[in-house]
Amino acid sequence: MKGETLGAFLLALMIFSFSISLIPLSYLSYGSSGEIVRLGKNDVEVHMDFGILELSETNESEPYALIRGSVSSKEGKVEGSIGSVSLYIPEGWEGSVRVSVRYGIVILNGSRMGELNVKMNLGLVQGEMVALKRVLIDIGSGTVSLMLRVQEGSGVMVKLDCDRSYLRYDGGSLRGEGVEMMLWEGRPLLQVYVKANVAELNIIRMKG
């Protein structure tokens, strides 16, 4: 990573940490009960200025969210200025989740979805998920650490636009500033695009 880029990235992280420290703990506290909102069967959108989003699986038939802080929900959209959102995705759900957070963290706990689209100015995306169609992550300044599980027989196209990236997959690994390659031919085709300062991506084909 170039010295100028690293310096700017570290400065951005310092500003981010300071900004988060100014948020009243009552907004982000996991100790508060929060509010459960039903999101219907359609695609889900989350828009926040500052916040934490966590995605997990549920045995419910439709997506729902537990929201805390200055956050509200309307017609399948969760919107707010400062808060935390715990989003629960049904098993086998093939919809899409679109996330727009200016400063924050997105945590993935193994949920399956058709598409994940994350846009952030500054932050972190980490965890694991089952991806079917598209994974699009665009972070102005930040880090991505992600394990993607894909269906056996699926094709996978990967593009990493980063200062530093590390890709591991069944059959090999690549390290460098950027990566663009077709890992496997097949249908359906999974498209993966990550833009961040640093990205570590591990892609695993599921059996059966």
Could you name the key traits of this structure?
mainly beta, 208 residues
Describe this structure in words.
- The chain is mostly beta strands.
- It has one domain.
- Helix content is 11%, strand content 70%.
- Strands 1-3-4-2-5-8-6-7 form an eight-stranded mixed beta sheet.
- The N and C termini lie far apart (40 Å).
Mean pLDDT reading: 84
Describe the main β-sheet briefly: 8 strands, mixed
Oligomer: single chain
**Distance between the first and last residues' Cα:** 40 Å
Number of helical stretches of at least 4 residues = 2
* Helical coverage, percent range: 10-25%
Number of strands: 8
Overall spatial form: globular
What is the alpha-carbon Rg in Å?
A: 17 Å
Strand order of the largest sheet: 1-3-4-2-5-8-6-7
Beta fraction of the residues?
Answer: over 45%
User: Which structural class matches the secondary elements?
Assistant: mainly beta
Poorly predicted regions are 1-7, 20-27
H/E element sequence: HHEEEEEEEE
How many domains make up the coordinates?
1
